[in-house]
Amino acid sequence: MRAIAGLIKIAVTLVIIVFAIMNVNTVEVKYFFGAPTLKMPLFIVVLGSMLFGVVLATLMYYLDRFKMSHQIGQLKKQVKKQEDELERLRNIPFMDKMD
């Protein structure tokens, strides 16, 4: 399994290197309306955008995961409370009406 993961990492690295070599042309990048333009290689712009997307997606994933774990904790407390109530109701002694 480690060998397969290593081969995948090597393949992805080679694809990125080939992509960088093929896209060394400089492009002008404007980040905001009043900001001056920056000249940088195309592969840096594309890889930077991809990296920003990965970071943003990871952040959203962990925020959602945090919310869900908090909700799971609340639901576990609710289940425990209901189980305690059920146990309390099961242990109530019966009183027979005798006339």
From TrEMBL:
Residues 23-87 form the Lipopolysaccharide assembly protein A domain. One of its GO terms (cellular component) is plasma membrane. Pfam families: LapA_dom. Keywords: Cell membrane, Membrane, Transmembrane, Transmembrane helix. The chain crosses the membrane at residues 42-63. It comes from the Bacteria. This is Putative integral membrane protein.
